[in-house]
Amino acid sequence: MIYLDNSSTTRPFDSVIKAVSDNMADNFGNASSLHRMGVNAEKTLKEAKKTILDRLSAEGELYFTSGATESNNTVLFGIPKAYRHNGKRIVTTSFEHPSVANPLKKLEEAGYEIVRVKPPKRDEAQDYEQRIIDAVDDNTLMVSAMWVNNETGFITDIAKIYTAVKRRNPKTIVHADAVQGFCKLPSKGLKADLISLSAHKIHGTKGVGALYCAKGVRFEPLLYGGGQQKNLRSGTEPIDLIAGFAEAVRSYPDCTGKYGALNERLCGKLAELPDIAVNSYNNAKNILNFSVRGVRSEIMLHFLEEREIYVSSGSACSKGKTSGVLAEFGVPDRDADCAIRVSMSPFTSESDIDALVTGIADGIVRFRR
């Protein structure tokens, strides 16, 4: 099996599976309990927080959630309630994940002004981040931008935006959806008041994520209950999943050079095939989006699946629908209908890339008209 759909989800590391299993068997106490089992669970929780914060190179608080969707919703609905007098403008991008884009639609219906900044077109000489910064005014409550786009890999310089926005309006809260960049890009490119994370994108398990919150920043909780995690995220903490999340962070290697070499190899081999359009640019090297013109995405995807090669036609959340995100990046509908997203992991090898390209070449011969 060749799995190249790691932006959708990842295979847990063996060490993560062991950490989860061990904690399920031997460390199943409630972290709020006062007895030894509860104290041991709380210790695991604190150690996991430190591990993740160290990887972020950030000081502040970390709240564990059920995943990045909950983290994003907590920010987008919790910040307007906590800072209701700071303004009603929110600046974002036009290519956010649905867990950001859809809450923003709800806020827009409630009377908030949502400014959606488009990405630069390929080879367009303009400072894209500056357009986000320039959209901030005295009435801007928040900026929310994803670090790495899940469909094209496009990178936004969040640290640059944060620094400039704070100079322009110190009251503006900066949020980053860092799901696709965390552990895959250097943390120096990420600085924000609030950061959303997900375990299952970095070889942890599904069902657990986190929300980083800088010192002095507050938000109203999305969930109310027993008051766990400083009353800001109620619910008994899943210590087993949290331990697995921390182990994934510890185990994720520096793949910067590897991803760069694999991306270069894939682009080079695709260039040898007829009528291929690469849709990614300014992208994290573990993600490449391209169109096999003349062969619809779904057809090519299932053809490759027959060879046990697994890729995506875009965001898993879109369930095969033509991507609106690609249109924001200037990809015409005819190419979006033929788009394939390849997303790599530390397990990906050169032979995996070669087998993928061979499969695509064979698919072209079989299906292109």
Provide structural commentary.
This protein is of the alpha/beta class and 369 residues long. The protein folds into two domains: 14-251, Type I PLP-dependent aspartate aminotransferase-like (Major domain) (Aspartate Aminotransferase, domain 2), CATH 3.40.640; 254-367, Aspartate Aminotransferase, domain 1. 39% of the residues lie in helices and 15% in strands. It contains twelve helices and twelve strands. It has helices at 14-26, 36-56, 68-82, 98-109, 128-134, 158-168, 239-251, 256-270, 297-306, 324-328, 333-336, 350-367, and strands at residues 2-3, 60-65, 89-93, 113-117, 140-146, 173-177, 194-198, 209-214, 276-278, 287-292, 309-310, 339-343. The strands form three sheets. It has a seven-stranded mixed sheet, sandwiched between helices. Strand 5, helix 6 and strand 6 (173-177) form a beta-alpha-beta unit. Helix 5 (128-134) runs parallel beside helix 6 (158-168), helix 8 packs parallel to helix 12 (350-367) and helix 9 packs across helix 12. The protein is globular and about 65 Å long. The mean pLDDT is 95.
